[in-house]
Here is the input.
Amino acid sequence: MSDRTWRTLRAGVAVTVAATAMLAGPSALASPELSAAEAAAVDHLVAGGLDRDAAVRRIADQDTLSRKADRLTAELGGRAAGAYLEAGRVVVAVTDDAAARTAESAGAKAKRVANGAAKLAGAKEAVRRLLTGVPGSSSHTDVAGNAVVATIPAGAALDGLAARVGAIEGARVKRTAGQASAQANLYGGQEIQFTVGGRGYVCSVGFNATDRDDNPVMITAGHCADGIADGEFRRNGTYLGTVRDHSFPVNDYAYSSLAADWTPQAAVSQYNGRAVRVTGHGATAVGGVICKSGRTTGWTCGEVESLDVTVNYAGGTRVEEMTQASVCTEGGDSGGAWMSGTVAQGVTSGGMGYRTKDTNGDGRIDEKDKAECGEKVGEPNIAYFQPIGEILTAYGLDLQTQ
Here is the structure.
């Protein structure tokens, strides 16, 4: 369920695009009573020198401003090179006077830049090609700096490469004294991050696999990959991979490349310091016990309740051929791995969320409040996942097993 698509169906109950893309940052608040996440965000701003009252207001306005940034970027299209938040205000990078007037009439600050969206996209692809296979390197689009930044390890051996990258129009090179670290392990169920319209979201890893050319890839939910501005997934702030293909709605699956800095594991995290190995894939019958791994609710279990389910999610999207199970899932779990024993079953698509608390302090219980799984409010758990077999067949992938 994506926090981007949650909508109320009745008295605080919502069918959500699954335990899904959840906002990575704190939600807006309208009262001095802060959640733990909001308080941490305010403390971060205060530590940077901002007055506490101003910090509270900034966190309260963040969601609204992010939506404005998203809207203006979409409206301006190729005349905008991204938007970002700065000192509690939306800043839009624009390439002409007309775009600047549009941004300013909406209450945003317009910043004239030399590199438009198309030029940055071209630079990013050119940089990515040159850095392929270079350990310890990375690249990203710096919206505020209006450039593609390539981080390349220091050392004479890479001076020539740095010069070639620096010659790309719209690119900027940053050399780092750090050495390439040991590869980080990647398990099913772990958190992944991405950005849509300047806002950060999170989903979960499904499974690791290989493509037709035997390259490592990562499987997740399709709606997690839908609309990503730069196509990139990250983990712990580090580049993880780029979306190769996705399907949503009707289906709900996607896969991405996997950067050389990550070591894919044929295992799924149980969120207790241990992992379940993946030995194959299959489909558990109705009544069978099944468990899922996801970044929000961790490792939770229940029973398969129905196969070939069609779900019309809030917001009008529809998914088909899902499996329904009595398992707790919430926002951010989307894409996470489902297992029956050591056999892979699928990736989280959505679930039934119940809103019973005014979590953002605006005096109402509506779609802006956090939705919880059924067991937390005395209701049945209802979750949906996309069976793994269809995903593997659709993209010609081989599941990584041990």
Summary: The chain has a mean pLDDT of 84. The radius of gyration is 22 Å.
